[in-house]
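Hi Y.,

Following your request, here is the sequence exactly as I used it, all 399 residues.
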Amino acid sequence: MATSPNMVKKIWLTFILGTISATGPLSIDLYLPALPEMTTSLHTQTSLIQLSLSACLIGLALGQLISGPLSDKFGRKRPLMVGFFIFGIVSLLIAFSHSVYLLIFLRFIQGLAGASGQVLSRAIASDMFSGSLLTRFYAMLSAVNGIFPVISPVIGGFMIRFVSWQGIFVLLAIIGFLLFVAIWLGIRETLPPEKRLHGDVVKSVGVMFDLLNDSKFVKLILATGLAYGGLFSYISASSFVFQNFFRMSVSNFGLLYAINGIGIAIGSAIPGLLATHFSEVAQTKFVLTSTLLTAIGLLLSSFFFNNLFIVIALVFLIVTQFGMIFTLTTSIIMNLSLKNSGSISALLGLSQNAIGGIMSPLVGLMGTGTYLPMATAIVGCIGISLVLFNTVRFKPIKD
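Below is the corresponding structure, written out as tokens. Let me know if you'd prefer a different format.
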């Protein structure tokens, strides 16, 4: 059976947007296996090399506050192209860097530039679709995006066996330039001039922060940000839980981490299949409740079982449901308004990165001798998220 031209275009668009939205995994997970070599090569301390990771995360968070408002004023395509061209250039500069301090600075700029992919992939989808169609498209987008956290560390680990750490950043540069060309040739402008914000850039930024005056919007971005906090609680604690507490080998943990990443991708796709039968709001309430109950089960197991296979099963269920939550809440938030999609997406991304960044060290401070801190953090994040979500009246924000 022949594939229709429209279907081919939709698959191509999903692939491009899914790839550009994966800036985080590409910028972070890909070079994690190279951190020890970079510490030796640059004659520096581990803490300074780790600071390059934090610098990129900060750049990814702040960059969304720049790309979002700019896209509402100038359209989606130009900020995306500029962002990935700069991403490619900076990645090349990193490959030729011989100073850890220059590395940290360039990683911050790399994050700023790459943030355009995260924020504008959501905005472009919102320009093109709405309602259940948007949910189904986000489901496909999230499924593509979910592949990268799984394969990035594997690719990075494979490369570091044959090339120096600089080769990873050369690869990132190539990816940046290829995406620049793909955006140029493969994505049309989705925000026509008549729908753009008028006035100077300062006004565009002001319009973005005006969204924070709407209590419904604030509750929703906090609810989805807290769900990300639950995910980052798992990410930051998982290696300690499975390798130190359960004595799992590094290779087995890597396999488990990849399987859970696939679970997130599968979960991300499920809401799209259910969108024609159940509303996004009903699905979200159900999944938040079921995730909370599963997390409580994980917490209780730390007192009664401490069984590796039970923990693996519960964690897989939790992260799969996280995938569903992210697709659903993103669709609900981006459906709130037909205008300022870039600004809405920017604040959504900031909430996710900020709360995720807070929860990662917080779980570590709670202790790594057991999985109780991880389970407690997930229960707390999802519990508060559910409470916030249930207090929202789902009426569109007025344009």
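The mean pLDDT is 85.

Thanks again,
Q.
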